[in-house]
UniProtKB/TrEMBL annotation, chain A:
It comes from Brachybacterium nesterenkovii. Coiled coil: none annotated. Keywords: ATP-binding, Nucleotide-binding, Transport. SMART domains: AAA. It comes from the Bacteria. Belongs to the ABC transporter superfamily. GO terms for molecular function: ATP binding; ATP hydrolysis activity. One of its GO terms (biological process) is peptide transport. Residues 1-21 are annotated as: Disordered. Gene3D superfamilies: P-loop containing nucleotide triphosphate hydrolases (3.40.50.300). Residues 28-275, 312-555 form the ABC transporter domain. It holds the Pfam family oligo_HPY. This is Dipeptide transport ATP-binding protein DppD (TC 3.A.1.5.2).
TrEMBL record, chain B:
Its main location: membrane. Residues 121-322 form the ABC transmembrane type-1 domain. The lineage of its organism: Bacteria, Bacillati, Actinomycetota, Actinomycetes, Micrococcales. The chain crosses the membrane at residues 34-53, 125-149, 161-188, 254-279, 299-322. GO terms for biological process: transmembrane transport. It is found in: Cell membrane. This is Oligopeptide transport system permease protein OppB (TC 3.A.1.5.1). Pfam families: BPD_transp_1 (PF00528).
Amino acid sequence: MSILQNARDTQGAVAPSPDPSLPPAPLLQVCGLRVAYGDTEVVHDVSFSVAEGSALALIGESGSGKSTIARAVLRLLASRRARVDGSITLQGRELTTLRDGEFLALRGRVLGFVPQDPGSSLNPVRSIGAQAHEAAALVPGARRRADREALVRTAFERVGIEDPLRILRSFPHQLSGGQLQRVLIALAILPGPRLLVADEPTSALDVTVQKQILDLLDDLRRELGIGVLLITHDLAIAAARAQAVVVLQDGEVREAGPTSQVFTAPRSAYSRALRADVPGLDADRFASVRAQRDARRTEGTLARRPGEEPHVVASGISRTFRVGERDVRAVDDVSFAIARGSTHALVGESGSGKSTAARSLLGLERLDAGTLTVGGRQVDPADGRGLRDLRRHLQIVHQNPFTSLDPRFTVQRIVREPLDLYRVGDRALRAERTAWALDAVRLPSAVRSRRPAALSGGQRQRVAIARALALHPDVLVLDEPTSALDVTVQAGILEVLLALQRDLGLTYLFISHDLGVVRQVADTLTVLRRGTVVESGSVRDVFTNPQDEYTRRLIASIPAHGRTAVAA
Amino acid sequence: MSTTAVLADSTAAPPAAAASLRRYAAFAARRTARALIVIVLAYVLVFLVLAALPGDPISAQLESPQAGYTDAQKAQIRKFYGLDQPVLLQLLISLGSALRGNLGLSLSTSQPVTTVLGDAIGSTLTLATTALALAVLIAAVLGLLSRLLGPGPLNALVRALPAAFLSTPNFVIGLVLIQVLAVGLGLFSLVDPDSAGSTLAAALTLAIPVSAQIAQVLITALDESAGQDYAEVALARGLPPVQVVLRHLLRPSLLPTVTVVGLVLGEVLGGSLITETIFGRTGIGTVVQKAVTAQDVPVLLAAVVLSAGVFVVVNLVIDLLYPLLDPRLRGTEATR
């Protein structure tokens, strides 16, 4: 800390710490900011300010202009031929009129940057030590090697990096996302900046790591009095971490004010819609659809017969991969059962084995031990004909709708493909089925003859679901179906999925890392950690009375979980 | 283990150094063994192809009535060159003596093949290495300028040059260089093809189209690195733009660039033939040309295997460079 303080004091340009008796002057003030790429203006007349030691969240969905604003503040738009108008002042000094050379002195030293994806934000071919040393060498006054090492050591200690010597020797690909983000934050605070611009700092991280990183940013803000400009699409994060928020849509400010006010009494319709769609803020978002489904399951054609066997059963499945010279048990003695017409969630962070378990169900993994049955029939990867039959009844919806659709096919062709492959009916029937599936996911007819590139993320995921539905399956494996989507889009997709379950009696295996979503949509769940079952049971029981420490940590890391009462 | 050493931008980390050095040595040994096998296979293949060609100068001479050899003399000559043996046995004998450094005698001059090639190789190697070095230098300058010059007409010119270089034929460049440098400016003499000036001009002729290919790959790779998150983060950290290019963009871009250097080597060797003709140099190109005309099989065989050997060695060096340039390749499939 003292070194960071010294480093800061060596440069006269930086204002001294604010006098606590005065109201905090805005550290960063943005006034009437407009950004245009060519003739297209993407940010319209945006104004906000960040006070010393406080956090302001810029909230918005993809395309709202929030990242463009962050880059305008950091002057990182130059290479993109963008035109910036308006005023940006930092500590009372106008930034927009500075020459590049003058601005360079502010970068890093006064304005720190924490990037979105730690995995790609450090140079992959240079050691962490080399990059840390390079960052330290930019601090004025750190001329001697010993000074730089002290700076690096202090910063690494401050962000809680364990075993710094090993980290310094490592290359980025040898570290986890959480470790890399700590390194990046360490490098950002090393010169003692007054403002940190954090662009979705945790969206690429697991939920428990996400919480640690956000806690760290909170601590740094409080202890070092740093102002934080937090860019996020996640309302829950903003609600829990920022003192003030600015809600952006299409490059315009929809609402701005203190966090408590915007979240308790949102004035704009957009803010209200956004808030309603955050899973962590409303556990009962889909309660009515699910109640209708339950009513149909007790009577009528979809009714369950008493004593009916579970539709999908995994018992004691194990799968080991050989990585280099050691064996990694990706799935270790995992069992679960899913009743017909219900949703079972496999929950876990990256590397927990949830995807391997799902792939096993599709017959894509050869099991070392255990059995999987669907509708009483065993899944056997060696039985090609059996698998073909199985997959008629069991379909998957992948995580990333941007890569799971063939870009050369039209929407209709994509949805019809499984029907062609299984030679279902004649042309007319296939066309009818295709139209039915696209209706079922409520995809506007205007886009059905287009190709995926012309569709939004949400529309693409609807196409993927329609494709899975075309064969009239009775089980869908949903592999993180909404994790690549904005919250409002996510809510729409979840609603479609639950309505389909109500109307068609589908059985879902729902893979997710997001416990907020799981609580909204699943009936039962299995929590996986490093390939083993940590906890399982009904969603209600697990959420009200988690038995395992890890489950408790997962639940605690649902953003805004603790604020539900305040915000609702 | 002091922090000082850790912070140095070393490619091999000291503490695990012994183990990683052992791994690297094993990798290098495996790759070298493979390279040797490739050269031997090249020898066998070229030998068989040449043996399959109809006729050879010996038979032509022996059978011609003017020569007036007796049958006994013919048999003796055939025996001297080993032509009375089955082809596979000839191959084994030839390969065996080649491995001992004896490449046989030229059919047209009766000099040892090693002497024939040895006289020419110096000139060609000087030309080829100078050309390759010049090509890399030109490519590096163009590549760096493409990132260091801000957007504008000058940058556009730098980016257009490689395409222009590529589309100009070798002999045109050579003739223009001779006209301008030797005839116009008198910088080197046309009479002495081995003078430094002449060598440099010949190398430049060869280097220009080759540099274009390297530059194109380098510029694309640099552009791609520039679009990566780490480049933006380094800039945001306050690193001056020039240093971002030198420290962050260049090294990740070297991998594809080094690969293409290995590929264009063939062009340098092939192009040297034309260039040697233009500049009146005696090199491997001239020797090969004469050997083809005279059907001088031993010289041809040695020349082709020599070129293959140079190719294999350069690509071996490049393979060995990969894990040094990119730590992610260490201990992966690519470096087995």
